[in-house]
From TrEMBL:
Protein name (Swiss-Prot/TrEMBL): D-xylose reductase [NAD(P)H]
The keyword Oxidoreductase appears for this protein: yes
SUPFAM superfamilies: NAD(P)-linked oxidoreductase
The species this protein was found in: Lithohypha guttulata
InterPro entries: AKR (IPR020471), Aldo/ket_reductase_CS (IPR018170), NAD(P)_OxRdtase_dom_sf (IPR036812), NADP_OxRdtase_dom (IPR023210)
Chain's role: Catalyzes the initial reaction in the xylose utilization pathway by reducing D-xylose into xylitol. Xylose is a major component of hemicelluloses such as xylan. Most fungi utilize D-xylose via three enzymatic reactions, xylose reductase (XR), xylitol dehydrogenase (XDH), and xylulokinase, to form xylulose 5-phosphate, which enters pentose phosphate pathway.
Domain of life, source organism: Eukaryota
Assigned EC number: 1.1.1.307
Length: 287
């Protein structure tokens, strides 16, 4: 089954007829000067899904890359994230509309949209989370965001959104995930509830490139360590979001569909889990 994955394989989003490409392209710390080129290289390499955020300050460049790609808008999947609450639902909503306009000006009389809008972080507290979620619910109702979700949310954060509007559960939860930080409790909760799990920092920002276990598995499959980590992520049923501004790496990171990691080697990688201590950005708080 897993060997049949391709660069455009998708997962279904809960309570909808929508799907999301399983391979995404992250653009955190992709400077505005190079981001458009990196996205263009990614499209040429077969990626059809870009993950940006207000915080990354490159939404306009992602939008330009999508427009100039020659691809149909409906064949590209674009995610962004609201950074913070602006003080009222209306103000947060307007801030999100600004992002939509940067990413998709709309064409042929159609309004622009993003495919997925996430709350970037739960850390600002309950009222901020509710304000941002209410803004996203409005965006969703108006078709400016086809799907809405969260990032870095634990179980209690997600449960706190129940009853606020028509979308529950959120379509997606984007969290840090790689062999050293598997966050099994929140992943199980999401998968049981149909919430798509997205893996950020799937390459551990290359910090584990010399890990003995990873290197030996990479040698066995004649692949790069980054390719093993991306393939691992996909075989865990996570949407994976590797980032690179290096053209050769952008291409090699998408070249992961001609092999499959065996169940035994998946288990070896699973055994590297260090829990919260393995996080390089942040692990979620579940209660
Ligand atoms: N929601 C959140 O809070 C959150 C947090 C973090 C990340 N994210 C998302 O997840 C995406 C990925 O995470 P990330 O950017 O933190 O880290 P990552 O994808 O794990 O690693 C990116 C780093 O690895 C390097 N790299 C990429 N491919 C490589 C390869 N084949 N060999 C060696 N090095 C390689 C890149 O360098 P070069 O660019 O120089 O090639 C870059 O320094 C982000 O871009 C963002 O979209 C979300």
């Amino acid at each position: 089954m897993a060997s049949k994955l391709t660069a455009t394989s998708t997962l279904p989003l809960p309570n909808s007829s929508l799907t999301i490409p399983r391979l995404g392209f992250g653009v955190y710390q992709s400077p505005a000067k190079v981001c458009e080129n990196s996205c263009t290289t990614a499209f040429q390499a077969g990626y059809r899904h870009i993950d940006t955020a207000q915080f990354y300050a490159n939404e306009a460049q992602v939008g330009a890359a999508v427009r100039n790609s020659g691809l149909k808008r409906s064949d590209v999947y674009v995610t962004t994230k609201v950074l913070s609450a602006s003080g009222s639902v209306e103000k947060s909503y307007q801030k999100c509309v600004e992002s939509v306009n940067k990413l998709d000006e709309g064409s042929g009389g159609q309004d622009g949209y993003v495919d997925l809008f996430l709350i970037h972080s739960p850390n600002a507290g309950k009222s901020a989370r509710e304000e941002m979620w209410n803004a996203l619910l409005r965006l969703h109702k108006e078709g400016k965001a086809k799907a809405i979700g969260v990032s870095n949310f634990g179980i209690a954060h997600i449960d706190g959104l129940k009853g606020l509007g028509e979308v529950f559960p959120p379509h997606v939860n984007q969290i840090e995930l790689h062999p050293w930080c598997q966050q099994r409790e929140i992943v199980d909760y999401c998968h049981k509830n149909g919430i798509v799990v997205e893996a950020y920092s799937p390459l551990v920002r290359n910090q584990k490139a010399y890990d003995e276990t990873l290197v030996s598995i990479a040698k066995k499959y004649n692949k790069e360590t980054a390719q093993i980590l991306i393939r691992y992520s996909l075989q865990k049923n996570w949407v994976t979001l590797p980032k690179s501004d290096t053209p050769a790496r952008i291409k090699s990171n998408a070249d992961v569909f001609d092999f499959e990691i065996s169940a035994e080697d998946m288990k070896t990688l699973d055994d590297l889990d260090e829990g919260e201590a393995g996080a390089i950005v942040q692990a979620v708080k579940n209660s």
